[in-house]
């Protein structure tokens, strides 16, 4: 199967200006990508493809019968994004279409990502954790538990 990973704006208002934002990025950071695959850390991915014009998209093939994990990384630049602007990582998975048919859409999943300045994320996680710990038990159950790896929610 083939999976396409994209970083997009989470906020609907910003989605309308996404193409202009991407053009601004391309102009101000020539040669830089927004998203890339960390190949040495990834397992079971085949034929990773990074399109030079699609700065926020990566693709790869994988075998669903084998253990597979993909590590994606955001730009390595010091100021990689706008502080606090919510992004969404979305993965769309397709099966092979029939002869001459387009690929069959199998599944889509996403998660929310927020960009922070270096060291800001650790501080933000700590203050968020402290806020949750101060909540009464019934309120704490409303929060999603912490995971070692990113858990994606199915897109309806």
Automatic annotation (TrEMBL):
Residue ranges annotated for the Grh/CP2 DB domain, each copy included: 1-156
Region named Disordered: 119-156
Coiled coil: none
GO cellular component: nucleus
Location of this chain's protein in the cell: Nucleus
Keywords in alphabetical order: DNA-binding, Nucleus
InterPro entries documented for this protein: CP2 (IPR007604), TF_CP2-like (IPR040167)
One GO MF term attached to the UniProt entry: RNA polymerase II cis-regulatory region sequence-specific DNA binding
Alphabetized Pfam families for the sequence: CP2
UniProt entry tagged with the keyword DNA-binding: yes
Keyword hit for Nucleus: yes
Compositionally biased residues, Basic and acidic residues: 119-143
PANTHER family noted in UniProt: GRH_CP2 DB DOMAIN-CONTAINING PROTEIN, TRANSCRIPTION FACTOR CP2
Name of the protein described by the UniProt record: TFCP2 factor
Gene field: Tfcp2_0
